Amino acid sequence: MWFFSDEDRMLQQSVRQMAKADLAPRIEALDHEEGFNREAFRKMGELGLLGIIVPEADGGSGLGAVAATIAMEEMGAVDASTTLSYLAHLILCVNQIAKNGSSEQKSRYLPRLISGEWLGGMGMSEPEAGSDALGMKTRAVLKGDHYVLNGTKTWITNGPVGDVFYCYAKTGEGRKDVSTFIVDRGMKGFSTGKKFSKMGMRASPTGELVFDQCEVPVANRVGAEGASVSMLMRNLDLERVTIAGISLGVARAAIETATRYAKERKQFGKPIGAFQQIQERLAEASAWYEACRALTYSAAKMWDEGLLAGREASMSAARAKLQSAQMATQVCLDAIQILGGYGYTREFPVERYMRDAKLMEIGAGTNEVLRIIIAKQMLGEAADAGKPF
Ligand SMILES: Cc1cc2nc3c(=O)[nH]c(=O)nc-3n(C[C@H](O)[C@H](O)[C@H](O)COP(=O)(O)OP(=O)(O)OC[C@H]3O[C@@H](n4cnc5c(N)ncnc54)[C@H](O)[C@@H]3O)c2cc1C
Question: What is the Rg, in whole angstroms, of the alpha carbon atoms belonging to the chain?
């Protein structure tokens, strides 16, 4: 992007190198067997990527949303699965502890999460509360010096492999009576339930978190009781801006693969790139990708500069994610079409790109939910849409 600083460009290069050395060689096998590249997190820790958005005073790199989005795009272009796990660790867990945690919580958790010794995740979604996140049923009841949690979280990225989870639970009867608890693997009454087998993002383990009379010390509650909704919503906005970076990375990889193929593959005695219908697909893909890139990095830059707040920030993040996610899925489908039969096989990575890209139309707010957020902001009271958030 034209406004990237020298520091941003250096970051881009170092993440690109790391992705080539530490992600690329393993992703095909991990995608096949639904494995997990845990070692990459230690490497990310050495490079300062696991605390990239955390203030230096808290042991992080002190950068912002633009830097985090660059990291997502560069890793996403190689291995979207590990990048999704990185996003859950960095944006949903580490950043939330840094932003909202007490100094005691920060000093207990951040050093090991930022070094890569511990892996983090976030528990919000439940079997009966997905888009309607505030309809969550997990409850936390205060008993002396600890809370007792009961309930199940589902679809949790890093659930099967994580050490620390930033979890939301109801502490009252109202929709907004939501509190946050840092839950460690090993706490009494906490277990990770089943791991899901998925069509894409297969090297990012997804599973359940189960709380059965789980005892969480009061010291692990983040912020005041019942005061978590605004922190949760603000974090969703940041998640949407940065996850759009994964869509950008996947789309870029698909466009590069399809362009290379269109130059090399010959039919009817000429490269298929000579055919206008192939050119049209590539040109449309390139234009849509660049438009989404401008939209996403502009949203990230506005976030870093503090130019937007409240619903305007939510709308900006929703626009970036909505367009980037749809763009990536379509571009990957077009890449498959350009590669013909080869595109449909595992001989080329475009079928993986397409399977991975689809997730970004569902996770962190579905396309439908994002359209509601945007339309609500445009239409105000006149909007007749539902109000999931
Ligand atoms: C791979 C993966 C990783 C994930 N990681 C995490 C994680 O780390 N932590 C976490 O908490 N969650 C995570 N999620 C959950 C994710 O955020 C939810 O899947 C998502 O919010 C949608 O919820 P749902 O799946 O229950 O779908 P539902 O909410 O049941 O939606 C089903 C369909 O109905 C539509 N719909 C719902 N409400 C409306 C409405 N008002 N108007 C119009 N259409 C509507 C939806 O758009 C969708 O098309 C993950 C999900 C996946 C698949």
Answer: 21
